[in-house]
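Recall from the previous chapter that SMILES is a line notation for molecules. Here it describes adenosine-5'-triphosphate.
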Amino acid sequence: MNTTKRAPAPPFVASGPLVASGPLVANGPPAAPLAAFENVFKIYGKGDAEVRALDGVDLQIDQGEFVAVMGPSGSGKSTAMNILGCLDKPTAGRYLFKGVDVATLSADQLAMLRRHFLGFVFQGFNLLARTTALENLELPLIYQRIDKTKRRAMAMEALDVVGLLGREHHTPAELSGGQQQRVAIARAIVTKPSLLLADEPTGNLDSARSHEIMQLLAKLNRQKALTVVLVTHEEEIAAYAGRRIEFRDGRIVRETRSTRTLTARDSNESVQGA
Ligand SMILES: Nc1ncnc2c1ncn2[C@@H]1O[C@H](COP(=O)(O)OP(=O)(O)OP(=O)(O)O)[C@@H](O)[C@H]1O
Ligand SMILES: [Mg+2]
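With both inputs in hand, we obtain:
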């Protein structure tokens, strides 16, 4: 029997074109910021043991931005990223994604939001071992119920974008660290998300490999209008971003905009499959 009532799709899914059109580029400037925190708190523990991981944070991320999140260890960067990625919820305050308060979404709707609109890249790559690059990329598309032929084509296109054609049948153990992170980025963008969240994506890579990854993210941001929020401890990594947000003790203590000169150097490159 099939009488179970499904929860209505959230407004950003019901609006259709953003899902149906597929490309990372949204159709014109959205009315609301892509993501916004309104006085967000995240509090762990109670009494003396209370930790204010986020202590009243207001934040706006606009479509197409490239934002670097910085700050000392324990200042709340990953906590903010986890909330942006709907992996965690604020203790108080609101998180709006495309103007929708995510607290109003059902578990199914949240899962849909994560699958269709958000991509994640972590320091540790988090690829499935004994699973080829191609299969790692196809997995999120299986969750989206995309048929096999289309899945394969989308996965190959994403591998092409990150410069890994020819490595599609390699397992993570058969790839270098930089290549593994490229697969992880390809997996994050294969679903054509609006927002890519990267928590110290270059933390396990040497300097040369880190810059390659940053150039790739900058290229995706510039040429595919992918909004990127990236946590880093390193100045030269943050220099790729257009805006820098600094956390301290769960609060944003400084915001600066840059002229993005570092990203200009690969401006002549083309993103294949665009
Ligand atoms: N699940 C949890 N339970 C209790 N406290 C937590 C939990 N997660 C994070 N915290 C605390 O919240 C604060 C912020 O942690 P968070 O992971 O956001 O820091 P961070 O800025 O990402 O640090 P790092 O640069 O070391 O990754 C820290 O004091 C941390 O100990
Ligand atoms: Mg962290």
